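sorry for the late reply, my laptop died twice this morning and i had to redo everyting from scratch. anyway the thing you sent over, i finally got around to it. pasting the sequence first so we're on the same page, its 474 residues, then the predicted structure underneath. double check i copied it right bc i was rushing
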Amino acid sequence: MAPTAADRFPTRHLPGVTVRELPPPPASAWRIIGPGVVAAGVGLASGEFILFPYIASQVGLVFLWAAAVGLVTQWFLNMEIERYTLATGETALTGFSRFWRHWGLVFAVMVYFANLWPGWASSSATMVTYLFGGDVTWIAIGMLLTIGAVLTLAPVVYTALERVEFVKVGLVLLFVVVAVGFAISARAWGGLPRAVTAPDFPTELGFALMLSALVFAGAGGGQNLVQSNWIRDKGYGMGRYVPRLVSPVTGREEAAPEGAGFVFEPTDGNLGRWRRWWRLANQEQLVTFLLISFVTIVLMSLLAYSTVYGVPGLANSVSFLRVEGERLQELVGPWFGVLFWAVGALSLFAAAMGIVDYTSRLAADVIKTSYLPRLSESRIYFVLVWGLVGLGCVILLAGLDQPLLLLVISACVGGMMMFVYSILLLVLNRRVLPEPIRPRGYRVAALVWAVLLFGVFSALTVWQQGERLLDTLR
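ok and here's the structure:
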């Protein structure tokens, strides 16, 4: 019997894939818009609202080049993650688990370590107190319970998340348009060319801070991996054959297919449809995730430069946004500071929802695929969402501050995760996929660059944070 495209898939740890025809792509690109907006929406959090604006407030706009480098690198990574799911309907984590059963579990645990503390919810709650007062703890708990309810009562989870992130991105873009007209100074616009003509690496702010901004502009860590799950639920490529996550209460669960995934034979018809799918997927990520993230980082940095550049004693935390909001009230009017805090609170809340979703979604996919195939992935997801929400509520009620050890783990784990899965993506897509659709040329070079970037970042961060931890424990 002649070999098929399915024969290349390792089957030691997971069932083989089924050969099927690649579904036709939509006639209009608008029908696949969504995953990139969701990625941008979840990623529009600390980097865009705190990290890059804080850097701009301290040293000006000379570090904006790092946002471009980080986002372009992540765009290539996202597309290699999407390549595998487009071609197979499997997530990248499932593909990794074909080489070693526990790869998915390793990444799921790392994502949990990175996202264990309910920091986005408490940051959003803090901004709400700037508007209305109140107790941060109880506001944050209310937010977590709301997130749990939305994610588990929506008939189709991805659809609910997509709508929330669309609203968030729209409001953030509306805010920056208003900021261009009312708040960004001529001095800031005049300093923007220096980001290109005189780029700098301001180590006086701390090496870890600079590299964190470079590596995690836009998304970072496990959020890139969940592109597989989001495009599958959107119905990209072979993902159309895979059931979507639905609410165990209000949704109608579809029958799961036999085996783990699918693959198409590289016939002329399938390859023609593949080229159209691949072009549309690249365009969607480019116009939504990359462009929205970069424009937002630049304009929020210009806003910070216009308002708080040179102000002493600014903290690289959510309290930085209080000072910036107060300055906006002085320079533009009380209404603009209120708008800034309102958009910031909504942005961080939507980020918290996305983080709870992708943390639980990645773990549910791993548990279902590699350990408990007979259980419903939607029900596993339901349990994990409420487990994360419940843990966050307990932490907030206990009044605990984030422990130093967890801070160190969070700082180190994201870059290390990206270093490892950049290598695995290169191996997976080059070894398993049919030859005509494998990455080659500059796509391979981009993955090698990602391996080097995140490898160096991980090593330096572990070394620096480890020294700080030891100094604190002495």
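The chain has a mean pLDDT of 87.
thats about all i looked at so far, will dig more tmrw
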